[in-house]
Amino acid sequence: MDVTFKKENDIAIVYIKGRIDAISAPEFEKRIDGMISEGNSTFVLDLSELEYISSAGLRSILVLAKRLKSENGKIVFSGLKGPVAEVFKISGFYSIFNVFADEKEALKNM
Question: Average pLDDT, stretch 47-74?
Fold first, then answer.
């Protein structure tokens, strides 16, 4: 898993490449949690290059979303496709989170 980010108008755009599974989920959670601790409270997670997400990855997302909610923050997703989009559908994440086709649309709706 590779995590990079940029900041645009106080919005942290996080690019996740590879897999979020039982091995990488703790690292993913730690990286985003660190960004929250640094004062970031609004996130777009670009998952266009995410190949796979397991239940451990979904759990990490829920933990981070809960922390952001307690700090009046927000998290949205963009670029879901293939197996990742399917997992989000099956797990009900589309009804919990805002999901946009791409980063541009996500930023426009923030």
Answer: 95
Q: For the chain, give the longest Cα–Cα distance.
A: 34
- The predicted pLDDT at position 27 comes to 95
Q: For helices 25-37 and 55-70, give the axis angle rounded to 10 degrees.
A: 10
Return the SS3 of 102. Answer: coil
Specify the DSSP element, H or E, that contains 20: strand 11-20
The alpha carbon torsion through 14, 90, 20, 9 (nearest 10 deg) reads: 10
Give me 15's structure tokens.
């690019």
**Mean pLDDT of the region 83-87:** 96
C-alpha 105, offset from chain centre: 15
Domains and CATH numbers, the chain: 2-108 (3.30.750.24)
Q: pTM of this prediction? A: 0.92
Residue 110 has pLDDT above 90, yes or no: no
**Contact assessment for residue 42 and residue 13, using Cβ atoms and an 8 Å cutoff:** no
How would you classify the pairing of strands 2-8 and 99-100?
unpaired
